[in-house]
Amino acid sequence: MRILLTNDDGIYARGINTLYEYLKKLGKVYVVAPERERSAAGHGITVHKPLRANAVVLNNDKDLCAWAVSGTPADCVKLALEALLPGPPDLVVSGINWGANVGTDVLYSGTVSAAVEGTIAGLKSMAVSLDVRCSEPNFAAAGEYILELVETYLEMDIPPETLLNVNIPDVPQGEIRGVTATRIAKRRFIDAVEKRKDPRGKSYFWLSGRIDEQELPGTDSYALGENLISISPVQLDLTNYQVIDQIQDHWNIKT
Ligand code: MN
Questions:
Q1: Which of 85, 86, 88, 111 has the fewest CB atoms within 10 Å distance of its CB?
Q2: pLDDT digits (tens, 9 = 90+) for 94-129
Q3: How far is the CA of 153 from the centre of ligand 1 (A)?
Q4: What is the CATH code for 2-185+215-250?
């Protein structure tokens, strides 16, 4: 069993180091992750400058093959699959991210994008995030759950072009009420741009804002509020098939 482990919080983040300790129980784990935090990098890739992959020692584990990459999470998966690993992995896992990735986060998230890249390559892929609610998140408890989820996932026959986006509530172990399949919530950030002045009087902007969402049962964000582990099946095909017909009708396109 060969597993590729990556993230967007950077190779030295607690989430990825904790997850390595659990996943190594299943087989040989290769860690290929950004050399620094690349959260909200989305699915960006680096095409205008060179990429470096430096071998590093993690967790004082000399058996661990780990590379710190100068690019994005999607770059990491591309490099891992085409240049660094001795062969294709059986599974790509991205995380454990510091913070939930629900609703539209799925599009901005580097954690999810790394799993998307694995899916594009035809591999079983899973993104895992911890819905951190305090300054001392319990990554170890999340790691135990993820190990169980991964074992089940490996046995499952999931359609191609589909990845699993997993979010885990950061509550004491006994307070997690179970696992539920969810759809991605509709949410957006409002008042997202804050305008400020620098010490020289020049304007700059900071993206922040607050979440605008009608929390609906069945969604990933709602599940977290219920202290449930949320698993959303995410597919690569973003096409709205109904609108294909509408476009054909309205523009009278000759085919
Ligand atoms: Mn992150």
A1: 86
A2: 999 999 999 999 999 999 999 999 999 999 999 999
A3: 23
A4: 3.40.1210.10
